[in-house]
Amino acid sequence: MLLPKTLQSLSTTQRDNIATTISDMLIDEGIAAGLVDIVFGHYFVYVLLSDGVLIPVFLYEERMSYKQFQSYGAPKLHFCHCSEIKQDFCAQQRHHTLTHRHYLAKITKCNAFSFSIWQGASQVGLYNDYPLELCAACSDILSEIREGQRIDSTLSVFVFKNESFHLLQANPSFLQKELIAFQVAGLECYKCKQKITLDSQIWIQINGNHLQVCCC
Ligand SMILES: [Zn+2]
Ligand SMILES: [Zn+2]
Ligand SMILES: [Zn+2]
Ligand SMILES: [Zn+2]
Asked: Where exactly are the transmembrane stretches of this chain (predicted)?
């Protein structure tokens, strides 16, 4: 895990390198939510890799209090901008969440996550390669987006293919909502680097596991 300082110093190096470094870190061990720019779509959650380039991520709490663990069990795995994520990352709550909770952004193709349980300053539990339950609210959102499309795999198999955001392209009204969320997210066009606003006409290009927001 890199420290904030490391990420800061990275920003002086080549843009392309940063994007690769961030996506490698997201794949290897994940990055604390407070150390990356998280962009909330209407449906999905992304990390900003460079101007206008987004990669969809999972979010989960990699550290929990013993109390929290006793009441709710292992952390739930979020893969959509669900009600719980909305609540924890809304303008009023975001700072508190980033200060007191330990959300990790991660990319993975298998359901094997690490998290630890804490009582005050002491770690009382550590789970490695642990399969997490999918967040129910996220599952509802993805089921809605999948509805009416030809998909053979179960929801959980599908989730770990990391291709959920491809579904948006098949449905103009879903895509439109995601694009509106991007218009108000303070992004820049990946090509011309101009600031994207509600007045911008934008579209997305899917490039491997990430998407590029474009205005020109
Ligand atoms: Zn690992
Ligand atoms: Zn969720
Ligand atoms: Zn606080
Ligand atoms: Zn542009």
From this structure: 43-60
- Residue-wise pLDDT for 108-162, tens only, equals 999 999 999 999 999 999 999 999 999 999 999 999 999 888 888 899 999 999 8
Query: Ligand 4 centre from 16 Cα, in Å?
Result: 18
Element (H, E) at 63: strand 58-65
Type of residue at 22: I
Burial bucket for residue 207 (CB in 10 Å: 0-12, 13-18, 19+): exposed
Contact 145, 131 (CB under 8 A): no
Distance 50 CA to ligand 3 centre (A): 30
Q: Give the pLDDT confidence of 170-200 residue by residue, as tens digits.
A: 889 999 999 999 999 999 999 999 999 999 9
93 C-alpha to ligand 2 centroid (Å): 16
ipTM of the complex: 0.63
